[in-house]
């Protein structure tokens, strides 16, 4: 099995049962947070691959999971994230028993997940700043989907303001070739970057070609997010 070793940090941060003392600014998201002892490409991806969706998915659309004791106080948020996905798709999250592949929710400095099935025990990291929507974002990465803004057709829908991007983070905005599941670009996706991600001064790094169209929400799955998961899992 090809092992997909992708580490993707979340989008916006919000309050959680135990509030973080650090509140990111408008141009700072959990995707911009550094993770110690990890070498990252494009700011949030480990071992880049030219794909928008992976081909190794969870068998029968069933995702076993464990919740580590140190994040036991986040159970309600984790279950809420599960519902955001399972309420609209055939994907189901079940408590791990003897399955070889499974997710393990753990404490982390940021919120992070591998993309697709990496094989064996697969961590999903939580910080105190992760909302249920942030966790749903990470679950969708674990299910096999990538950030929307890296699609090869994105220039038809957004304009990247390269001069506003932190120089060392410009690779984060490069187009990736790969499988788009033959579905349209989605400005409303929970997997899309926000307008000021990795900005040098808070000014927009991404501007939509539709005036006034908001991007970067972490509140719900869009209709196209749902359709992409259904297509990927054939349900």
From TrEMBL:
Cofactor binding, note field: Binds 1 zinc ion per subunit.
Keyword Protease (UniProt): yes
InterPro entries named in the record: Astacin-like_dom (IPR034035), MetalloPept_cat_dom_sf (IPR024079), Peptidase_M12A (IPR001506), Peptidase_Metallo (IPR006026)
UniProt cross-references to CDD domains, sorted A to Z: ZnMc_astacin_like
Residues binding Zn(2+): 137, 141, 147
Keywords on record: Hydrolase, Metal-binding, Metalloprotease, Protease, Signal, Zinc
GO terms classed as biological process: proteolysis
Stretch forming the signal peptide: 1-20
GO molecular function: metalloendopeptidase activity; zinc ion binding
Domain Peptidase M12A as annotated: residue spans: 52-235
Active site: 138
Cofactor(s) recorded in Swiss-Prot or TrEMBL: Zn(2+)
Annotated EC: 3.4.24.-
PANTHER family linked: DISCOIDIN, CUB, EGF, LAMININ , AND ZINC METALLOPROTEASE DOMAIN CONTAINING, METALLOENDOPEPTIDASE
Protein name: Metalloendopeptidase
Phylogenetic lineage: Eukaryota, Metazoa, Chordata, Craniata, Vertebrata
């Amino acid at each position: 099995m090809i092992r997909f070793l992708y580490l993707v940090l979340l989008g916006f941060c919000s309050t959680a049962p135990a509030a973080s003392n650090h509140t990111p600014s408008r141009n700072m998201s959990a995707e911009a947070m550094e993770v110690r002892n990890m070498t990252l490409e494009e700011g949030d991806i480990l071992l880049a691959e030219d794909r928008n969706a992976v081909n190794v998915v969870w068998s029968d659309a069933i995702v076993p999971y464990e919740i580590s004791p140190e994040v036991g106080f986040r159970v309600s948020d984790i279950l809420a994230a599960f519902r955001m996905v399972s309420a609209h798709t055939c994907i189901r999250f079940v408590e791990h028993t003897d399955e070889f592949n499974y997710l393990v929710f753990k404490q982390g400095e940021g919120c992070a997940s591998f993309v697709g099935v990496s094989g064996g025990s697969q961590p999903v990291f939580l910080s105190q700043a992760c909302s249920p929507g942030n966790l749903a974002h990470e679950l969708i990465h674990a299910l096999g989907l990538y950030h929307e803004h890296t699609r090869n057709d994105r220039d038809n829908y957004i304009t990247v303001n390269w001069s506003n991007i932190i120089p060392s983070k410009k690779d984060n905005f490069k187009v990736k070739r790969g499988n788009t599941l033959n579905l349209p670009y989605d400005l409303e996706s929970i997997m899309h970057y926000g307008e000021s991600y990795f900005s040098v001064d808070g000014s927009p790094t991404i501007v939509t070609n539709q005036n006034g169209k908001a991007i970067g929400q972490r509140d719900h799955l869009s209709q196209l997010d749902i359709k992409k998961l259904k297509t990927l899992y054939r349900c």
